[in-house]
Amino acid sequence: MVENNYDILKIHDGATEKEIRTAYRNLVLKFHTDRGGDDEQFKKIKRAYEDLKIGKKYPDTMEERRKKAKFYSGDSDSDKRRKNILLSQDISKEMNSAQEWAAALNRAGTTGVRLFGSNELGQMEFERKATKTLAIKGKFWAGHFKYDNPVIMWGSITSPYFSPYEKHKTHIHVTKGSFRLIDSMQNKYDIDGGAKITVDNGDIEVGDIRGKRILVQDPQGRVGMSITREHFSTLKAINGKLVTGSVRDTVKLDADTLVVLNLIDNVKITGKNILVYGSKVTYDVEFFLKADGKIRFYDQGSGFDISDDATIQLENGKRIEIRDLKHANMISNGGKDIT
Hints:
- By secondary structure, the chain is α/β, with parallel strands linked by helices.
- The protein has helices at residues 5-8, 17-31, 39-53, 62-68, 77-108, 184-187, 322-327, and strands spanning 112-118, 122-128, 134-137, 144-147, 151-154, 171-174, 179-181, 196-199, 204-205, 209-210, 212-217, 226-231, 233-243, 247-248, 251-260, 263-264, 267-276, 286-297, 311-314, 319-321.
- The protein has 2 domains: 5-68, Helix Hairpins, CATH 1.10.287.110; 77-261, no CATH class.
- It starts with a helix and ends in a 12-residue tail after the last helix.
- Pfam families: DnaJ.
């Protein structure tokens, strides 16, 4: 017996739209990959839900899905890149629709819940609450999204760094209130791929962050030559506090107060109050301390993994090397405020 879309969602034939939506949401919470679920099962559930929304009882066969796809990827890197660019374009359009929907609810002062996303990568749930806070559940893949009140989120954030179009790359912008990834360390929600988060008047609380560095062919066409292209993941809360987990591999952070763990490989930190609670800082980490600011390393050990070659740049142009602070006993065993 062929399994139909009602069977997949574990509901009876002819279920109402509300019953279909409720069943889908319950299964998403169980099987979504960001919650440790089965990726293939999640995709199957998502397709069943999309089919039932348009009244389609039976799922497509694999061959039918290939025929309907905008682009069927081959094995070459160029094929994969082209498909990924098309997917990022689709997701960007969806995020624009989500932004318009959330803004309309803000203007009306009403609550609402709606799904946005793509058939290939999955959907995200957006819910505007009575408190004006927007709750987002699911992985953020691409596109610009702006909201005028606080945002809380369950899920990781990435960006299509490979896309030549800036409008397709991830940028979440909160104009009033804070942005928080809920239980990000426990659930391993992270930020990568050159994603950007900007909060104008509020705080940012997230987990681990990484950027992306790739080798590309020399733009002048020189044979055997390549260059490194950097895609910085960038978080800004210039009027608030930025709290993160470990930060590595091409990241920029800018806030009034920063609370961070380990800083590893090509990280640039700008702030007035910088608190480093991790034990590792690599040689290519740069600190930019704003006027009347302070920085403190809370390493309880010897400070061995805090590189001598990391630097602190002051707003007046003065440059300090970490080795000088070690000699002054301002790093290790809890450290001292450096102003």
